[in-house]
Structure formats: structure tokens, C-alpha cells
């Protein structure tokens, strides 16, 4: 309701949970390609990827999963009646919320494209200044229907009919049957060990858990503490592990209901050790020299994450998205929300980068009913068997490496959660072959050292990597939150 930039009736996401009895699991409510989608739908007559089609407007919209996800989680675990959960949101939509500085700046930046795409003046095409109060009466009406009729209101009747007609009128191909056929999946999370930690994260169709496990598996043999936090050597180690994992991501990962993913081999210590044998601290391994391992057989930051630990000790880590800023920029004035542009997370053409510069292959090609590969990495970390951290972040392709850096900051450099979140971050994703840095916090000397070793570096003003919201449970039971100062993020205890 208060974060149209990334939230989210029109999107999808993932939840990783750990109950206080130690049971873990995950819920996949990722968007899905409509039945009328096909692998070349974003190619022009010359066979080139037309990224405008996969990022803006009706064709970029995947069938939304959020409402089914919320109701599925509520049905399985909820203690309160659904009205108790939705009524406060309806009240907020009717009374309004106050726009922050950051929100007003972003709305100004996107106002024109929202207007062009949606083809009409609407709530977020008005000039909105910091301090203004925004009411979303259409959304309040939508939420009342969901409260009174449940998820069927969204996936079954008049609302599904309206959404499919609206999206089609804006160039899309989603039909009412796509809403009726949408399903969420309860899936086994990816769980792996790193030193005395057990890390539980999201499996495919997110690449998050597997990639994080690969990177941490490649790093574990090294003494990272000894290298020094955010030193040139530290940056080298992270980069070399990251680029090797992202090369595998691009080749092997996709919707597990459509492709066979050799998870066990990808995570085997012998395989990961072998990948790092080509690493020398003297010089960069260029990404061109790396490809996926052999096993037989442009930037934006608009997702959102929340981490919760309840009084009983249950933990949930949820990353949820409409992909780009304000999703497809297509705002539904009748229902009060933006539709996602998640179709851009598919690989539109082998070798053609998506909006995060990620390259994909066959495993992530578009197919009807398939889920697009994600980088979202909602994660829970146990230390010596006890709940230690709940964390996650937006950031597209940078999500995985951001989650990695928070865990390393806390595990090796003895930081508390807020301190770990505040640290400057870096990121490498194999292709493009460039090591990105947040502007503040990395010296020119450090960049020079890396350049001399053959690393291409990029440090851009205003570049932020991730907006982490995380919780650390200290050994005395105290919960410490880390809310990212890069956004309007905040921590609350009730
Ligand atoms: O699922 C994914 O990986 C992307 N759709 C996430 C997008 C995102 O984090 C946008 N913000 N940076």
C-alpha cells in the first residue's frame, strides 16, 4: 500500500520460513508466463531482443502470484482472521500515507513513463511532493473484495476478467484462464553449511539459494578475516567466486518444473574446489575465460524484503517484487496497483542481457506456464543450530552478493546487524565483466590495485547495492534489526 515502487498485488515473490520447532520450508508465489507466451515473443523482425517490450507495458506482465501466496501462507500458518490482517491496510488506503523525500523523487522520475504506459492520468501521475498524503481508494475497494471473498476474487471472477482485458488492451496476452490456472508451490528450500552456520535459502525458480551456496562453498577454504574487510584481496576473492557461480547460474538454472537442475553436483565441494583452481591472487580471471562448469548429465533496485521473528520464535524471510521500478509502469486505476514486468527475468534470447545485465540460456527460455528465473534470496541463518539471522534484500542480480556480504560481515568481522547492513558493498556477476562498487567507502587506491591486477572496476555516484532488512538474534535472545539507510527502511518491535 505504501510502496507502489515495489509492492505488490500485481507481482510475486518467495517466502522462506523456519518455525520455532525447527521445521523449515519455502513458498514460491513467483509470477508465471501466460499460456500465450512463446520463446521469441520479445524478438523483433530481425531477431533482436526488443527490451522495451519485455520491460514496459502489457506484454512484460507475468501472471501475478502475490495474492495466492498471501492466502496460502495464511491458510497454513495464520492465527488471526484475515480481516484482522487486511482491515488495517484498508484503513491506511482510505486515510492515506505520507510521501517521503525519496518516494517523491522517484515518482517524479517515472511519472511520464507511467502516464505513457498506462495511457491515462491516475493516482501516481499527479505531481506528488514529500509530505503529501496519498489515499488509494481503488486499492481499498480491491482489498475489501479480497477480505470478503478470498483469493477467488482475484483469480476467479470479475477481477480476473477485468485484469486480463486491461492487460490485453495494453498489448499483453494474459487471459482469464491464466489467472484461473495460477498455482503457488511449497518447495524444499536450499540448505547448506558454512563453518558453524546452517543457511536456509530459496531454491529454484530463484537462483538465490544455489548461487549463494556455490559462492560460500568456494570461499570457505580461504581465511577471509585475514584478508581484511573490504580490502583489495577480499574483493578479489569475492569476485572470483561470484563470477564462477553466476556463469553456472546462466547455464543451468531455470524453473525446476521445466528443466532438470543438477543441484547436487553444482553444490558438491569437489566441484566448487575445482572451479577455484584457476584463481590466482596475482591477476584477475577474465570472465571471457570462464564458462559454466561441465557436469555430465543496467540497473535498478525495486524489489522489497521483510524479515520477521515473532514472539514464539518463528521466523519468516520474504522477498517480493514487481521487478522494475513501478513494475511494467502499467497502473490499473480501477484496482489501484501496478502490474509487474517480470517477463524480463526470462532470457529473451541467449546471450542478450536483461535489465540487470544478466545473460541467460536455454534453461531460462520463455515457455507457457513457466516461471522466470529470479535472484531473490530470502534467507535464514542458524548458528550452532539456533536461529541467528533472518535477512534479504532487493537489488536484482546484486541480491545474492548483498546477502553474502551481510553474512560474511557478521560471521568473520564480528559486526552486529545494523553495522553489517551499513557497510559499503561491491558486486560481480560474471557478465558484464566489471566489479561494481558503491560510491562511498572504497578508496581510489583500492580500485587502482585491482585495476593493476586486471579487474575492470566501476564506481558510480549514487550507485547503491541492495536495501537490506535483517534481524540478528543475539545469544541472550535479544533481537537486533538492521534496516538499510539506503532506503526509507525501518525496524519495529511490538
Ligand atoms: O526476481 C528477481 O531476481 C528480480 N525480478 C528482482 C528485481 C529486483 O530486485 C528489483 N530491484 N532491484
Architecture overview:
Helix 3 packs antiparallel against helix 5, helix 9 packs across helix 11 and helix 9 crosses helix 13. It is built from 16 helices and 18 strands. It has 494 residues and is an alpha+beta fold. It is globular and about 60 Å long. Bound molecules: 6-diazenyl-5-OXO-L-norleucine. The site of 6-diazenyl-5-OXO-L-norleucine (DON) has 15 residues, from loops.
User: Which hetero ligands occur in this complex?
Assistant: 6-diazenyl-5-OXO-L-norleucine
Class from helix and strand fractions: alpha+beta
Portion of residues within helices? 25-40%
Mean pLDDT: 96
Distance between the termini: 20 Å
The percentage of residues in β strands lies in: 15-25%
Question: What is the rounded Rg?
Answer: 22 Å
* Uncertain regions spanning at least 5 consecutive residues: none
Biggest sheet, in brief?
6 strands, antiparallel
Number of helices: 16
Strand order of the largest sheet: 6-7-12-13-17-18
Shape: globular
**Tally of strands:** 18
Amino acid at each position: 500500500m505504501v510502496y507502489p515502487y515495489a509492492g505488490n498485488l500485481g507481482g510475486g515473490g518467495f517466502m522462506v520460513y523456519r518455525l520455532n520447532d525447527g521445521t523449515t520450508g519455502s513458498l514460491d508465489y513467483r509470477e508465471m508466463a501466460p499460456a500465450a507466451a512463446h520463446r521469441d515473443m520479445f524478438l523483433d523482425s530481425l531477431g533482436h531482443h526488443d527490451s522495451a517490450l519485455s520491460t514496459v507495458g502489457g506484454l512484460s506482465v507475468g501472471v501475478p502470484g502475490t495474492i495466492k501466496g498471501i492466502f496460502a501462507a495464511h491458510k497454513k500458518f495464520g492465527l488471526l482472521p484475515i480481516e484482522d490482517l487486511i482491515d488495517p491496510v484498508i484503513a491506511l488506503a482510505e486515510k492515506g500515507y505520507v510521501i517521503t523525500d525519496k518516494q517523491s523523487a522517484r515518482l517524479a522520475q517515472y511519472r511520464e513513463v507511467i502516464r505513457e504506459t498506462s495511457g491515462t492520468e491516475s493516482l501516481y501521475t499527479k505531481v506528488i511532493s514529500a509530505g503529501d498524503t496519498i489515499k488509494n481508494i481503488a486499492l481499498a475497494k480491491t482489498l475489501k473484495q479480497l477480505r470478503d471473498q478470498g483469493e477467488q476474487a482475484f483469480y476467479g471472477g470479475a477481477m480476473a476478467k477485468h485484469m486480463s482485458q486491461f492487460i490485453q488492451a495494453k498489448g499483453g496476452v494474459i487471459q482469464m484462464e491464466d489467472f484461473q490456472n495460477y498455482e503457488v508451490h511449497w518447495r524444499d528450500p536450499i540448505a547448506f553449511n558454512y563453518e558453524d552456520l546452517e543457511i536456509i535459502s530459496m531454491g529454484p525458480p530463484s537462483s538465490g539459494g544455489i548461487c549463494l551456496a556455490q559462492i560460500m562453498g568456494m570461499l570457505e577454504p580461504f581465511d577471509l578475516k585475514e584478508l581484511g574487510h573490504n580490502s583489495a584481496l577480499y574483493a578479489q576473492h569475492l569476485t572470483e567466486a561470484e563470477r564462477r557461480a553466476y556463469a553456472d547460474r546462466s547455464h543451468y538454472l531455470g524453473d525446476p518444473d521445466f528443466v532438470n537442475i543438477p543441484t547436487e553436483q553444482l553444490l558438491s565441494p569437489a566441484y566448487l574446489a575445482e572451479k577455484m583452481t584457476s584463481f590466482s591472487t596475482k591477476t584477475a580471471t577474465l570472465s571471457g575465460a570462464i564458462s559454466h562448469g561441465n557436469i555430465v548429465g543496467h540497473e535498478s533496485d525495486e524489489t522489497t524484503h521483510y524479515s520477521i521473528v515473532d514472539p514464539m520464535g518463528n521466523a519468516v524471510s520474504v522477498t517480493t517484487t514487481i521487478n522494475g521500478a513501478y513494475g511494467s509502469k502499467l497502473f490499473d486505476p480501477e484496482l489501484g496497483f501496478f502490474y509487474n514486468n517480470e517477463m524480463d527475468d526470462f532470457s529473451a534470447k541467449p546471450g542478450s542481457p536483461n535489465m540487470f545485465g544478466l545473460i541467460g540460456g536455454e534453461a531460462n527460455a520463455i515457455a507457457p506456464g513457466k516461471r522466470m528465473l529470479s535472484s531473490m534470496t530470502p534467507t535464514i541463518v542458524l548458528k550452532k543450530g539456533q536461529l541467528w539471522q533472518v535477512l534479504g534484500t532487493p537489488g536484482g542480480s546484486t541480491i545474492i552478493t548483498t546477502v553474502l556480504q551481510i553474512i560474511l560481515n557478521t560471521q568473520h568481522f564480528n559486526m552486529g546487524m545494523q553495522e553489517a547492513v551499513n557497510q559499503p558493498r561491491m558486486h560481480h556477476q560474471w557478465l558484464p565483466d566489471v566489479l561494481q562498487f558503491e560510491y562511498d567507502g572504497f578508496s581510489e587506491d583500492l580500485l587502482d590495485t585491482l585495476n593493476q591486477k586486471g579487474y575492470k572496476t566501476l564506481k558510480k555516484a549514487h550507485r547503491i547495492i541492495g536495501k537490506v532488512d535483517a534481524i540478528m538474534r543475539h545469544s541472550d535472545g535479544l533481537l537486533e534489526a538492521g534496516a538499510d539507510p539506503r532506503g526509507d527502511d525501518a525496524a519495529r518491535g511490538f
